[in-house]
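Changelog entry: the GTPase Era record was regenerated in this release. Current contents:
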Amino acid sequence: METGDDYKSGFVGIIGRPNVGKSTLLNNLLHRKLAIISEKPQTTRNKIRAILTRDDAQMIFVDTPGFHKAKNALGERLNKAVRETLDEVDVTVFILDGTKTVGKGDLFIAKELAELETPAIAVLNKIDRLTGDQVEAEKKVVQNLGEFSDVIEISAKTSENVHALIERIVELLPHGPRYYPEDMVMEQPESFIIGELIREKVLQLTREEVPHSVAVVVDDMEKREDKDLVDIEASIYVERDSQKGIIIGKGGKMLKEIGSRARQEIEPLLGDQVFLRLQVRVEKDWSKRPEMLKRLGY
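Regenerated structure tokens:
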């Protein structure tokens, strides 16, 4: 029953410093890849809404950019997105990296959460890399950060204790209707996910050679009438000519590899073969220009 007296539903904000495992947890919760993962900070830029529907509850998870010290217009917009999320959700999941000492970023987030009435669960992630004693010691540290509804230790990578986290979230959700159809898992259109998958491959393959100032826009996507093939044209935006050269690579080798790896993940998403055409465009200092941020969807 979708709207019975016992049905629970609501929005769940996932928050934490960069690289604590927010996107890994989101993908684990939905059992599919919805958020891109990279070792570079600020990998998640948009608020990603993913939907987990059960017989007794529907949870809409909002994965946010990591809170960080803003250095440009892009950074300021990312932090604004996090604050907006905190104001909108019914439950907040505050993720901390159990392998690292609590830092200024964690204290900053804890302070922001303390000013809200929204129930918050503190989640100690990456326990697969800790001993039992280390887990207990880190939990005590986290408990001293603020007044949390619960402190739960998990491994987003191995799924350990993730089920317990889901059950606790359901307990804290208000009673409400099913907001989205049962088979819907993401609010964003397919073109958004495709652009993110391409950006992930750029970040993974270029490593430290190209800074984080990479954006991807899907310019056109059309299925051919005569065969199960989808033509996709996408633009990769960078800030400097030198970055463009790195992404294209010698003889176009790097760009070809980016396209090949992205296509391998896009095809299962669409259920069709994909012909992917990539272009690299230079927009000088786009991450510092508000008009370009708006044009690129940030």
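The beta strands are 8-16, 48-53, 57-63, 91-97, 120-125, 150-153, 215-223, 229-238, 273-282.
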